[in-house]
Every structure is written in C-alpha cells, then in structure tokens.
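User: I'm writing a short report section on ligand binding and want a predicted complex to refer to. Could you take this sequence and iron/sulfur cluster and write out the structure as tokens? A short remark afterwards would be nice.
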Amino acid sequence: MKMIDVVNSCSSVTRREFFNLCGKSVCLLSAVNFLGFPDISHAQTATKGLIKTKLSPYFTSLDGGEIQCELCPHQCRVAKGKRGICRVRENRDGKYFSLVYGNPCALHPDPIEKKPFFHVLPGTTSYSLATAGCNFQCKFCQNWEISQASPEDIYSYEVSPEMIVKKAKEIRSRSVAYTYVEPTVFYEFMLDIGHLVKKEGLLNVTHSNGFINPGPLRNLCKVLDAANIDLKGFSEKFYRELCSGELSPVLETLKTLKQEKVHLEITTLIIPTKNDDLSLLEQMCLWIKKELGADTPIHFSRFYPLYKLRTLPPTPVSTLEKVRAVALSSGLEYVYIGNIPGHEAEHTFCPKCRKRIIQRTGYMVGEINVKAGKCRFCGKPIPGIWS
Ligand code: SF4
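Assistant: Sure. The structure tokens for the complex follow:
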C-alpha cells in the first residue's frame, strides 16, 4: 500500500527535500518530531473507497434537483449524481453531501513551525490532518497527490472527531491543525473536531488558501485560534492562471480573520518569474500593513520545482532576501524566509530593540525570549499565542 507523504502546504519542501537541505544534527532531531510519536496509522488500517458521508449545511436547492454549494466562492452548481470542483462533495438526490467526513488521508504529529506558525506556542506539536480534495488547482502544489485526488482513489482512515482529539492529547499535542490541502473542503469534519478541541483546552489552527465564503468562515472563527493564510500572489491574473482561483475573496478572508481576532500569519511562496515582481510585492505588503497591521507575521517561502512547474528553477536565496528587504521597508515587522534552514530570517527579532527573541533552525526552536507575550529585553508586546 502506498501512503502519501504530505508537506504542510503548497509552500513547504517535502520531508525528503528537507532532510537533504538540513545538516545531520537537524535531520536527526527533526526525525524525532516526524517519527517519534505513535501515529494513528499504526492502529488503523487505511482503506480505499468512500467510507462515510455527512449532509452539508451549506447548500441551496435549485430546480430539477440541482444544488448550489455555498461553502466557497466557486459556488458550484451541481446536478444530481455529480460533484463540485473540489471532488469531495456530491449531489445525492438533491441533497449535498461531504464524502470525506471522518475520512482523513493524512494524520501527522508535526512541529507547529512546519505549518508554519512562528508566533503560536513555539516548539510544540500540532496534530495535523487532511482529507482528499481541494478547491484550488495550483500548478505548484506540493501535495497534489491528495489535493487533486478523489476520495475513493487514495487510502484513508476511518476516524471520528473524538478519536482525533483523544490521539492529539495522547501524543501531547497542544493543537490540532487542519492543513496539507484546503481545509474548507472537509469543513464539517473540521468543525466537529474543532468544538471538541476547544472543550479539551487545545488550540485549533489552520493553514488555508483563504478561499471560503464569509458565512462558514465566521462560524469557523468561533472555534479557530490561529490561521496561516496563503497569499499566493497579488494579482487576479496569478490566481486565475496558476491556481484556478480568485484573489479578492482571499483578501476578504484575511480582513474577516483580523476582525474576528483570530491570530493571523501569512505565507507567500515566491515563484521565479511568476510572482517575484518586487513592486507588486511592495503593494501587497503595504496592503497587509494598512488592512491587517504592521505586526502581521509573513513567511516568504522558497519554491522548488515540482508538479506542473518542474521547468522553473528553485527561488534564488538572493530573491527571497530582496523580497524580505522590501517587506521590512514597507513597514512589516515580522518577516521570515522559509524553506532555507539555517537562514537568519528564520529567527524572530523584536521590532523595537532588535534583539533576537526566538531562535530557530528549520523546525527546531532554540532560545525563546518572549515572556508573558512580551520581549524579555525591552517589554514590547509580541503578537501571538504564547501559553
Ligand atoms: S466547497 Fe467544493 S463544491 Fe463547494 S463551492 Fe467550493 S469547490 Fe464547489
């Protein structure tokens, strides 16, 4: 049976690439995080095929048995017996069903830095899950084997929300992460887990493309503690041509998360020739500063050639450093470079006293000088969830 190795989003390197990139000591310690905890896969047999369905609360009935899905801005109109763009929702006799409820294909205890969250409980484990399906078709997706799959085509587990939370506690995860693909497509499962997670005093965190309608998003915010949203580019053209999506709903999601006081971080994968225009990136940073605040952490990640963009080179380190300089000069205070383990821009620096307040190498966290949410050296409040 082939199990699929997932990375955390469209913007991370694969585990194999990560190990190749890191020094030996980093690899060994990271391997503890990846492999050292009991995984639910040891106790469960993954099977192929549809396992469980759940009626979606987010659809409108139309004439002739058609439905319109209201979960994401695609607003798919779906005829009887057919599925929406994400492949994991089906019209059965005029009612719309999730086909992936309780049916994750990926379950991993990950370092929370892998999500990436740099301002949420650093150094802790986040029990991370995904099902098949996605509402985008990014040409640079690093998890395309599951994001672009139908649920019956890959191996998945049968796991209840209660089992997820039990396992998260057993392995001492401080959070449960909805990630790897776009979590909106397994919304009902995520929400049911999320309510149990809150009861147990853990955090709910998500890495998302932000392509969700405002109603379900606001409902999700009732249990959501932190979100890392991919801002994949800053033009409709980029979203249309490379992701089969739209930019404007993603910007609305970012504003809503800010209003709802969900801790927010942003990730942008910098792809050579596709979204590395510095003037457009400057506009993006100025938009973030104005609409979300200068203290919104942003991760600029290195692209590696794969899936449908195999002919492009990896992002030069110098490009990422230029992008970071633009973001800092635009006024953003926490600007990180991702997928280059050992780079200085993995650390957190206090924007006031400039001292290093969190030390990182890859997914490993060293010294932390944030005390009660403030810089230990000068007392400046640092945004995030620290305890
Ligand atoms: S969640 Fe899926 S079915 Fe619903 S509108 Fe989005 S892509 Fe279409």
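A remark for your report: The pocket of iron/sulfur cluster is lined by residues 69, 71-72, 74-76, 84-86, 89, 135, 184-185 (CB under 6 Å). Residues 9-43 have pLDDT under 50 and may be disordered.
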